[in-house]
Amino acid sequence: MTAVSQSAWYVYLVRAANQALYCGISLDAQKRFAQHCAGKGARFFSTSPAQALVYIEECADKSTALRREWAIKRLAKPAKEQLLLAQSNQLLAHSGSTETPR
Fold first, then answer.
1. Tens digit of pLDDT for each residue in 13-45?
2. Fold for the domain defined by 9-75
3. Sign of the C-alpha dihedral, residues 76, 79, 83, 88?
4. What is the tens place of the pLDDT at every residue in 47-94?
């Protein structure tokens, strides 16, 4: 039997040019974002190209990432925006900055 690698999976959000948010999972969120920018993968970006990788959340395994992706996709857009804001504030707290993001 071959051992299966226990790599971390990532849930990510990409903002499209029309300001819509796309949620997906990947082993490498940065690489997947580059694929979206190149027009590979999700048809979601056929009408409005990918603009920015705005959220990344690490998950222990694929199953956890799939459950988290499902939960995020069920959120209304304002709740997704709050998720982005919360992560931004968390990053600011870790950096020691007192500025609020714009």
1. 999 999 999 999 999 999 999 999 998 878 899
2. GIY-YIG endonuclease (3.40.1440)
3. positive
4. 999 999 999 999 999 999 999 999 999 999 999 999 999 987 776 676
Task: Compute CA distances 69 → 38, 39, 91, 92, whole Å.
Answer: 22, 21, 21, 24
Count other Cβ atoms within 10 Å, centred on residue 45: 21
Q: Are 59 and 72 in contact (CB under 8 A)?
A: no
Q: How many CA atoms lie within 13 A of 50 on its CB side?
A: 23
pTM metric for this prediction: 0.82
Domain residue spans of the chain: 9-75
Question: What is the rounded CA–CA span in Å between residue 97 and residue 76?
Answer: 29
Residues 76 and 91: their CA atoms lie apart, in Å, by 23
